[in-house]
Amino acid sequence: MTSSKPSRRSFLKAATTATAASVAGSGSLAALRASSPVHQGGGQLKVGIVGIGGRGSGATVQAMRAHEENVLWAVGDAFLDRLEGGVDAVTEALGEQRKHQIQLAPERQFVGLDCIDKVLDSGIDVIVLASPPGFRPMQIEKAVAKGVHVFAEKPVATDAAGVRRVHAACQQAKAKGLTVVSGLCYRYHPARRAIIERLQDGGVGEILAIQGNYITGELWSHPRQAGWTDMQWQLRNWLYYPWLSGDLIAEQHIHTLDVMAWMKKDVYPIAAASLGGRQKRTDPKFGTVFDHFATIYEWEDGTRGFSYCRQQNGCWRDVNEYVMGTEGRADVFRHTITGEHAWQFEGDAGNMYQHEHDAMFAAIRGGKPINNGEYMCNSTMMALMGRMAAYTGERLTWQQAWDSQEILMPADLDLAAEPPASAVAIPGITKFS
Hey, what CATH class is 10-186 in? Predict the structure, then answer.
C-alpha cells in the first residue's frame, strides 16, 4: 500500500514544461466550482485516470478528444510498468496536435493500491475508472464524496454488496449534480439506439424471446514473473478471478445483457437459471472462472431471454442479439428488422467509445448532468444473478440476487498479502449466500 512518483521519459517532461505557463494562466473550472460541483461553459477540466493499462489508456484518449480544454492531470495504477506503458500509449495516440493536453507532472503519477486517493486529492474535476471491477464500488464512493464527475467502466461490482454500494453512491451523485457515465458503450451507439427505440415502440410487435450471444475466443494472460506475489499475479491476471472480474458473464457478457434489458425499457428479469463450467480453459493460469455460461432469464410479462457466452479458442463465434416478436424479428448488431415493420439503419454510426465521452463532457460543461447509475447497477446485477445461478445450480429470483450476502471483494488489500481464497464453483455443491 505504497505510492511513488515515477519519472517519465524526457519528451513527456518537455511537453509538461512547455505547457506549464499556459496552464497557470488558463481558467480552471475547478476554481468556478464554488458550492456546486456542476461545471458550465468553457475552461480547463482536469481529468484523472485510475487503471491506465489496456482499456484505461483508450478511455483516456477519448476523454482528451472530447474537448480541447480537457487535460490529463493525474494518473494512478497498481504497477509502475503499467502506468508508464499506459501514459506512453496515450501520448502516442494523441500525437503532436494534442500533446498540450497532457499535463502530467511526475508528482501527479501514483503507483500502488491506494492510488485512487492520491489521484482524487490532486485537484481533478473528472475521474476515469478502469481498474479491475472489484475496486469499482470503493472508487465510485470516494469520487462522489470528493465531488468529482465519474466515468466508470463496466461492470461496477463483482458481488451484490458492491452493487448496492454503487447504487447508493450514484444516488448521492445525483443529489450533488455530478455526472456519472457508464462504460456500457452500446447505449451511446447511434445505430443501436435507433433499433432499440423501434423495438421499444413495437417494431417487432410484442417481444416474446431474446437470444443474446457473446460467444468468442480466449483473452490475454500475463506469464508469471520472478518476484511476483500471488496477489500481484492475480491483479495482473484479474480476468480469471471472480473477486476481481465477476467472471466473464459480468466482465464481458454484460454488454449483451444490458442490451437485452434496454430493449425491454429497462425492465429487468425477475429470475434466472443457468448452466456453466470449465471445459477447455482449465489451466491454472486461468484462475477459477468458468469458460462458458448458458442462462435463461425470465421477465414478469412472460418474455424469455436466452443468454449464451463462451471464451474458447477454435470454436464458432457470434456476438449479437436476436429478437423474436409477434410481428417480426430483429437482428440487433446488423440493425435490421424484418416482418410487418421492416427497417434498416442507414448512416454512419461513428465510434461509440468516443460518443460516450463526448456526451459526458458536454453534459458537464453544459451544466446538465447525466447519471447512468440505475442501468449500470441493474445490468451488473443481471450478470451477477446469472453467475450465482450457474455457480450454485439454483434458479434465483432478482430479489434473492439483490439481497445476496456474498462478499468477494476484501475491504483492505496489500500487495504483500495473500489474495482471497478462490476455488472453481461446482453447481449443486457451491451454496448460494
Answer: alpha beta
